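Reviewers of the previous submission asked for a worked example of the structure-prediction workflow described in the proposal, so we include one complete record here. The input consisted solely of the amino acid sequence. No template or homolog information was supplied to the procedure at any stage.
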Amino acid sequence: MYEQKTKETDSSVIEFIENVENAKKREDAYRLLDIFEETTGYEAKMWGPSIIGFGTYHYKYESGHEGDAPLTGFSPRKAKISLYFATGHDRREDLLSQLGKHTAGKACVYVNKVADIDVEVLKALIKQSVDFLKETYPEA
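From that input alone, the workflow returned the following C-alpha cells.
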C-alpha cells in the first residue's frame, strides 16, 4: 500500500525559517509567510521537513490513491523558492504570465526572490489555488 511521504508535522515553522542559511532567503520566507497567512486565513504548518503549507484538503483519485495535502504553500530551498499552487485551472497560466520572473514545473513555481514577482499576482494565485482545490475536493 502507498505511504504518503509528505505529511503535516508538529515542527515549528519559525524554527524552520530561522534555520534557512541565506539571510535574504530567510527574509523572503518571513515575507511569504505573512502573505500566505494573510491571503489564505490559515495558520502555517510544516509539511514534511521543508514545505510550509496553508490549509489542507483530502484527495482521492479514481485509482483509489488518497491522502492529505496543503491547499497552497512554499519552501525556501537553497537554489530557489518553491511556490505550490493547484494545477488544472485555466486561470493559473494567465496569472503565471503576469507573475514576473519565474520558472514553472508541473505543480511548482520557482522564484529567486520575492522582489522578482508581483505580490498582488502572487496573492491572486494563492486565492485561485485555495478556491479551486476547495471546489474540486469539497470536505466530506
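The first strand starts at residue 44 and ends at 47. We consider this example representative of the routine output the project will generate in years two and three.
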